Amino acid sequence: MKRGVARLCNWLRDRVYGEYERMLEEEILARNLPEHVAIIMDGNRRFARKIGVSTPHGYLYGAGVTERVIEWCFDLGIKQLTIYAFSRENFRRTEEEKQELFKLMRTEFEKISMDERVHTRGVRVRAIGNLNLLPESVREAIKRAERATERYRQFRLFIAVAYSGRMEIVDSVRTIANQVKRGLLSADEITEETISRHLYMIEGGEELELGQSQCQEGLKTAVDLIIRTGGEMRLSNFVPWQALGNECAAYFCAPFWPEFRRIDLLRAIRTYQEREEDRKRYTVMRMLKLVRAFS
Q1: Phi, psi of 39, deg, nearest 5
Q2: For 137-164, how does the pLDDT look when each residue is reduced to its tens digit (9 = 90+)?
Q3: Catalytic residue among 32, 42, 237, 264
Q4: Rounded Cα distance, 150 and 122, in Å
Q5: Distance of alpha carbon 146 from alpha carbon 283, whole angstroms
């Protein structure tokens, strides 16, 4: 009897959540979507402790969710996704845990090279960060994935590994300073756009021709929405230049990364849309006040 009641409750819950998810998707698809979403995938280790499995198994669960999130973003029509896979601070973890993470990275990048979904959907994959800090086997797997997808433009996936947002800005400034030293650029010509053109996401780095637009071939470095799982309300040195200068919306949610659901992604996008609409209303109100003041 109790099992029957439990099954009925679960069935009802699934039906309600399914209908709510369908309505939410219709709602967000009727509005403007964020072009570039960035995700801090937090909580893999805490999830492993919660369900009583090893830390590597927690990361495996998380890797499965990552694959699904990429599909969800593609299906919804989002053009760019940046995921925070491994920060420079993560190098402080135990040697055993780092080796497990490097093994998982190598496996996932190798899967990308051969995944038919990646090629069918035209997913361009690039790793961003100080890749020289990674083991050679991981770097080789990254190169293979990047080469296998380099001609695609339909969807861009950036994977931040050995990444630090502050160091990204420092590296950009170093490149610009070197160009000034070589006489390729004058100090008076340096603008915010100059720094944006030399971030990790831009192909070519130091060899980028001056004046080349960051939006060439649809690339957008600015981030519209940051999502963080695991209940923490901080950005952890993730894409600070791309987010803070763009009035980026932030969505913090309680589920650990392996628990992240499609409905959580939809809620995050709705948060972005509501913020955009509030900003537009505020702008219109200010303009009306100015018109009244002058009249």
Answers
A1: -130, 130
A2: 999 999 999 999 999 999 999 999 999 9
A3: 42
A4: 9
A5: 42
Q: How far is CA 31 from the centre of its chain?
A: 21
Could you tell me the domains of the chain?
A: 33-163+220-289 (3.40.1180.10)
For residue 119, pLDDT beyond 50 = yes
Q: Which residue has the higher pLDDT, 286 or 236?
A: 236
pLDDT at 148: 97
42 is catalytic: yes
State the Cα–Cα distance between residues 52 and 44, nearest whole angstrom: 12
Q: What is the DSSP letter of 133?
A: G
Q: Is 67 helix (H, G, I), strand (E, B) or coil?
A: helix
DSSP string, 188-229: GG--HHHHHTTSTTSTTGGGPPTT--TTGGG---S-SEEEE-
Neighbours of 92 (CB within 10 A): 8
pTM above 0.85, yes or no: yes
**Cβ contact 267:251 at 8 Å:** yes
Q: Is the pLDDT of residue 104 over 90?
A: yes
**SS3 assignment, position 25:** helix
